[in-house]
């Protein structure tokens, strides 16, 4: 029995501000993405951003298990692979919510106190690694949770942005399972921050930059 | 926190029984005086942004203030307030609510806390941070994790019955405002009766009939905020939670008998 922690980590109701994020869907919709293309967007994200994010989270979880916790290398590697400033800012904003939760659960744990040393603010995958350490989840569970969260973020934002039958979104998530599993495996295979894959997609970045200049937004990014 | 100092955590791949202790710490730094966080909630268009503008106009001369807005679309309210010129524009922040304004002030206040903390860090020490909720329905109230005190705003244009309908904001907010009283003659609402309904639903909590055209009522509003701030500072103000769905009969009211409680 794996316990509740891995489920908690993947629960969209976790109060960490994730509902303010659409994982690129709102910018994509503004650029013309239609509802029938959401499954394709899910696959694209699983081959790009989700791999980098899950790998960074796993690296952070490993860093959290060291005697001297230092998130600097993974934070820098991830920031370097997130060239669009609005995406770094959104990631840092989401990371704050996760950091606040980790502080609430284990304020004195080195895995958590080390987050405060990260400048600028720790990106979301880094904080997820710390939270994973606090919850004592496995690398596999963490990688799957990050990948799953990517899917759920997009599909729940789709209910606001391209509304239709909510039951469709569950079918989309299940259909994406092979790509999700592949993304998690790829992430788990990354051993060092230097190996962190740079998977950002040019369109994702272009749309994110356009989104940041837009005034009427529902989502951070 | 007995066992959390030593960095003896096992490599996380080995599934260990959960070692973590439930933290009993509160996030808020204790002992450090921080700004009073005052939430302003109420249905769409009842005058929340106008109240924020009024409070800034009345109080910004004596208090260090900042504002956070929540809106369906990011920054409509923030833009209105910035253009009102009542506070330096950089002290007015808007947060994205992912089309969940209700969640943002109650179930998951992360984005709002971030905005409040950022403002305190950038312009602090502050005395008062006002947080406007996105216009929502009668059940949308602030969690005490975000707001130390809250006012709930309804208006005469919404009809004279609104106060009697109850709901957690109407029955339990620290202050209930019946706004736009200047419009009462045009919408055929009896303000005195509406206020009386509100009072009987609130078991002694204050009700204020407000119009921005009535300077006396504006002064009363500002005085109420000053008094809450004073109590916040001397530690006698205890944040209370109106709850998301307090049944009418749970209002802390003596005036109510079972005879006309109409819950369920
Ligand atoms: N007559 C009158 N109109 C008022 C008063 N206060 C606000 N209004 C008007 O009511 C309308 C809505 O006011 P807002 O302050 O934008 O209301 P709000 O609750 O912030 O609206 P949302 O943020 O959209 O929910 C505006 O046209 C205001 O000018 C008042 O005291 N008297
Ligand atoms: Mg408003």
From TrEMBL, chain A:
InterPro entries: UreF (IPR002639), UreF_sf (IPR038277). Transmembrane segments: none annotated. Keywords: Chaperone, Nickel insertion. The keyword S-adenosyl-L-methionine does not apply. Gene3D superfamilies: Urease accessory protein UreF. This is Urease accessory UreF family protein.
């Amino acid at each position: 029995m794996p316990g509740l922690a891995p489920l908690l980590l993947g629960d969209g109701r976790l109060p960490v501000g994730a509902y303010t994020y659409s994982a690129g869907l709102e910018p994509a919709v503004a650029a013309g993405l239609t509802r029938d293309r959401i499954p394709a967007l899910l696959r694209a994200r699983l081959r790009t951003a989700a791999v980098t994010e899950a790998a960074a989270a796993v690296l952070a979880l490993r860093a959290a298990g060291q005697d001297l916790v230092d998130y600097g290398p993974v934070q820098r590697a991830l920031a370097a692979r997130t060239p669009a400033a609005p995406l770094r800012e959104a990631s840092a904003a989401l990371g704050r919510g996760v950091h606040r939760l980790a502080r609430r659960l284990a304020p004195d744990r080195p895995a958590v106190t080390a987050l405060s040393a990260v400048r600028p603010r720790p990106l979301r995958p880094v904080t997820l690694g710390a939270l994973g350490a606090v919850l004592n989840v496995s690398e596999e569970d963490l990688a799957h949770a990050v990948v799953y969260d990517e899917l759920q973020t997009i599909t729940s934002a789709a209910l606001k942005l391209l509304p239709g039958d909510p039951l469709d979104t569950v079918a989309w998530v299940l259909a994406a399972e092979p790509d999700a599993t592949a993304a998690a495996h790829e992430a788990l295979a990354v051993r060092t921050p230097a190996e962190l894959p740079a998977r950002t997609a040019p369109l994702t970045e272009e749309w994110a930059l356009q989104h940041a200049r837009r005034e009427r937004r529902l989502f951070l990014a | 926190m007995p066992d959390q100092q030593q960095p003896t955590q096992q490599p996380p791949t080995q599934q260990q029984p959960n070692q973590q202790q439930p933290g009993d710490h509160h996030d808020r730094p204790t002992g450090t005086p921080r700004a009073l966080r005052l939430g302003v909630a109420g249905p769409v268009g009842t005058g929340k942004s106008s109240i924020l503008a009024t409070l800034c106009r009345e109080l910004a001369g004596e208090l260090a203030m900042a504002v956070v807005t929540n809106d369906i679309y990011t920054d409509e309210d923030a833009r209105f307030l910035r253009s009102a010129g009542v506070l330096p524009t950089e002290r007015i922040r808007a947060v994205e609510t992912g089309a969940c304004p209700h969640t943002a002030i109650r179930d998951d206040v992360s984005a709002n806390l971030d905005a409040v903390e950022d403002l305190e860090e950038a312009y602090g020490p502050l005395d008062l941070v006002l947080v406007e909720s996105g216009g929502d329905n009668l059940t949308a109230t602030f969690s005490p994790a975000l707001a130390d005190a809250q006012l709930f705003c309804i208006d005469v244009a919404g009809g004279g019955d609104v106060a009697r309908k109850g709901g957690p904001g109407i029955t339990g907010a620290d202050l209930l405002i019946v706004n736009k009283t200047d419009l009462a003659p045009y919408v055929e609402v009896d303000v005195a009766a509406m206020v009386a309904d509100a009072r009987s639903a609130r078991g002694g909590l204050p009700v204020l009939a407000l119009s921005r055209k009535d300077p006396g009522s504006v002064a009363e509003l500002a005085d109420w905020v000053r008094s809450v701030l004073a109590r916040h500072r001397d530690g006698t103000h205890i944040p209370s939670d109106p709850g998301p769905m307090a049944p009418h009969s749970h209002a802390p009211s003596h005036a109510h008998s079972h005879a006309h409680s109409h819950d369920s």
